[in-house]
């Protein structure tokens, strides 16, 4: 039986892409994990989540374990809306859809908007799993580079003008992580945020704002694109993975009610009612704004250690951005293939993510790598950079 013959053409095309998760290489035991984009183990509120679970089941018995689940599922939506309102994003109940993490949210948005003829714009580099999702729906992906101030809106405008002159299809959707971007850690300036909203109006495209790291600002939190949106062009995607626990898989979409209705149509009951109920019970006892402050204090300490270690240990010519929040720092090692270097680095005792996986055209990322300061301890971060710097120096001096 030729099983591939049963697949529709769109699935065959998707299966021809690089397999999902290719960027996740095995890490030897004892290796310092500067590749892990996870919250620090000691900052995951496991005790509080256990208490919330116990309280939920004591109060509601078997109710949260049924298909319909707990009344706290609706309460969770209310809690998320209240937090958005605190962050100056005014949304109503029918404008929010809770999802199984941010990836399901991104996939649902792609599902209702994209087909093989649609064009989408993404940052370059960008979040690799979002890139994998978009490639499942269309090959028409336009990339716009990032600099220290985020997405280059001048280049974006130039491409839009050129495509209009040539009567080429314009993008339907632009995907961006404007705040503490993955993988670069950069933040879109306020002037560029305003420009992006203006271009969306002028050239009639929608914006998918991925705000996974928006609660982790070391200083003042940047203004979200959603709060600047006056025409309901922004699909805002939020997540509790970075500020509570990624295994709970709690994300959400905030958008116009008509978009939410379409998204719900395809989401159906593909969610985790028990996890949502537990999260709501947890949030009854926790102030997210206060928790955000706690986390950012801890992560900023680690980010400073990473930054100072790079200055102290890295050889001349290596470049990086200093983030103002989030989890990551983006390193350029000119003339070095970071994918080929990874095996040597892991053997020496440190792991990172090669830059190629964050680019549509992977050759563009050969000399880059992503480091995370969220998961490893302060001591591990300093030691890891010392090890990595020796490996980098050896590669540069070959």
Automatic annotation (TrEMBL):
The UniProt record lists the keyword Transferase: yes
Gene3D superfamilies registered for this protein in UniProt: Aspartate Aminotransferase, domain 1, Type I PLP-dependent aspartate aminotransferase-like (Major domain)
Keyword entries, A-Z: Aminotransferase, Pyridoxal phosphate, Transferase
Keyword Magnesium attached: no
Superkingdom of source: Bacteria
GO terms under biological process: alpha-amino acid metabolic process
Any one GO MF annotation of this record: pyridoxal phosphate binding
InterPro entries according to UniProt: Aminotransferase_I/II_large (IPR004839), Class-I_PLP-dep_aminotransf (IPR050859), PyrdxlP-dep_Trfase (IPR015424), PyrdxlP-dep_Trfase_major (IPR015421), PyrdxlP-dep_Trfase_small (IPR015422)
Database matches in CDD domains: AAT_like
Start and end residues of each Aminotransferase class I/classII large domain: 31-387
SUPFAM superfamilies linked: PLP-dependent transferases
Cofactor(s), names only, from the UniProt record: pyridoxal 5'-phosphate
Family: Belongs to the class-I pyridoxal-phosphate-dependent aminotransferase family.
PANTHER family on file: AMINOTRANSFERASE (PTHR42790), KYNURENINE_ALPHA-AMINOADIPATE AMINOTRANSFERASE, MITOCHONDRIAL (PTHR42790:SF19)
Complex and partners: Homodimer.
Protein name in the entry: Aminotransferase
Organism: Cytobacillus kochii
């Amino acid at each position: 039986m030729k099983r591939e013959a049963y697949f529709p053409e769109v699935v065959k095309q998707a299966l021809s892409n690089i397999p999902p998760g290719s960027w996740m290489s095995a890490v030897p035991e004892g290796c310092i994990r500067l590749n892990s984009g996870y919250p620090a183990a000691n900052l995951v509120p496991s005790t509080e989540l256990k208490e919330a679970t116990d309280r939920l089941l004591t109060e509601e018995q078997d109710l949260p374990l049924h298909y319909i689940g707990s009344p706290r599922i609706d309460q969770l939506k209310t809690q998320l809306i209240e937090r958005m309102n605190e962050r100056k994003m005014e949304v109503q109940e029918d404008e929010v859809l809770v999802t199984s993490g941010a990836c399901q949210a991104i996939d649902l948005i792609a599902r209702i908007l994209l087909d093989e003829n649609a064009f989408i714009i993404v940052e370059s580099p960008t979040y690799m799993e979002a890139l994998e999702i978009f490639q499942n729906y269309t090959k028409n992906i336009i990339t716009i580079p990032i600099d220290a101030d985020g997405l280059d809106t001048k280049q974006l405008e130039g491409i839009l003008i050129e495509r209009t002159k040539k009567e080429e299809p314009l993008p339907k959707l632009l995907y961006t992580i404007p705040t503490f971007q993955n993988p670069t850690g950069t933040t879109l300036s306020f002037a560029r945020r305003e420009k992006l909203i203006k271009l969306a109006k002028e050239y009639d495209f929608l914006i998918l704002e991925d705000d996974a790291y928006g609660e982790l600002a070391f200083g003042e939190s940047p203004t979200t694109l959603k709060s600047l949106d006056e025409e309901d062009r922004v699909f805002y995607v939020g997540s509790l993975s970075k500020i509570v626990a990624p295994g709970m898989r709690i994300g959400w979409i905030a958008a116009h009610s008509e978009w939410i209705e379409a998204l719900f149509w395809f989401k159906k009951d593909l969610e985790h009612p028990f996890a949502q109920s537990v999260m709501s019970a947890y949030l009854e006892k926790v102030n997210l704004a206060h928790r955000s402050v706690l986390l950012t204090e801890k992560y900023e300490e680690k980010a400073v250690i990473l930054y100072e270690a790079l200055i102290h240990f890295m050889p001349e010519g290596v470049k990086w951005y200093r983030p103002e929040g989030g989890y990551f720092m983006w390193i350029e090692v000119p003339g070095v293939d970071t994918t080929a270097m990874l095996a040597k680095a892991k053997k020496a005792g440190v792991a990172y993510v090669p830059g190629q996986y964050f680019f549509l055209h992977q050759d563009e990322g050969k000399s880059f790598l992503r480091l995370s300061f969220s998961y490893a301890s302060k001591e591990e971060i300093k030691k890891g950079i010392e090890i990595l710097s020796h490996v980098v120096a050896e590669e540069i001096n070959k």
